[in-house]
Amino acid sequence: MRPPSSLKQEFLKKWIMGLQRCSTVKKNMSILERKKAIKLSADVAMASARNGKTCWSRAIIANASKHGSDKHLVEKILGPESERLIAKKVSTGALCNNRIRSKKILKRSWGIRRTRKCAPQVALASFIAKWLVRKRTKVLKSLIPGGEFMNEVCLIEETLDYIISLRAQVDVMRTLASTSEIVNHN
Amino acid sequence: MSNRRSRQSTAGVSRISDDQIIELVSKLRQLLPEIRDRRSDKVSASKVLQETCNYIRSLHREVDDLSERLSQLLATIDADSAEAAIIRSLIM
């Protein structure tokens, strides 16, 4: 995994590129429009810092490229590699498929045992536990971009990477917001 | 257990072991602020998933708030001030 500071630098560089592009395209934006532009640039910048290696980043790029007006922004941020990265499929195909076999292993590692003979309370508890895991896995899939294409193992790996990237994104944005506010008040 | 471990995947690619998965789950636990601070080793799977979802949702919300803040900041900046020029040249 890349060290956090270079990830942040990469993100900042691309985010600023995107923001400058937004402002040259449309001069007088409403607050809401500007907010959307800032957010979109940030998300695409975060995704492009991964260089097409993760499912979630490809999903973000694919979604952003769907709308004509946003596609140019995506291309600007991605730079010369944009054609290749936009065309990349969201589902990783072979990479995820060979992990499907580990579905059973994963379920077992969650500590859920299928016991044939056991007291009703234990069976009920185990049933509830299984149901909760399944339900929450669905929620997680809805939160990670491109999550609906992933099996459980892929999902956890993508989640790890996604959380790290989100944190970097939040840190950079927070720093920029606070310094801008300080500069503005002085 | 050993039978399952020795089973080859049809694509001939390396198998995922139990240990790898346990490692992934523990890495996830490390990232979550709530669970990391707790001493106990035993955290249920559903709890980990729940905390993960909550954490991601809160991060999304923060990004949204920060975008709002930045957008308003840029709108209220006094157009002619030197500070505005600094910020403008940096971002917009």
From TrEMBL, chain A:
UniProt keyword annotation of Transcription present: yes
UniProt entry keywords in alphabetical sequence: Transcription, Transcription regulation
Organism per entry: Durio zibethinus (Durian)
Domain IBH1-like N-terminal span(s) in chain numbering: 5-66
Lineage: superkingdom: Eukaryota
One GO term of the biological process aspect: regulation of DNA-templated transcription
Pfam families per UniProt: IBH1_N
Name of the gene: LOC111300263
Stated name of the protein: Transcription factor IBH1-like 1
UniProtKB/TrEMBL annotation, chain B:
Keywords: Coiled coil, Growth regulation, Nucleus, Transcription, Transcription regulation
GO function term, MF aspect, one: protein dimerization activity
GO biological process, any: regulation of growth
Protein name, entry field: Transcription factor PRE5-like
Coiled-coil ranges (or none): 56-83
Residue stretches making up the BHLH domain: 5-59
Localization terms from the record: Nucleus
Origin superkingdom: Eukaryota
A Pfam family recorded for this sequence: bHLH_ILI
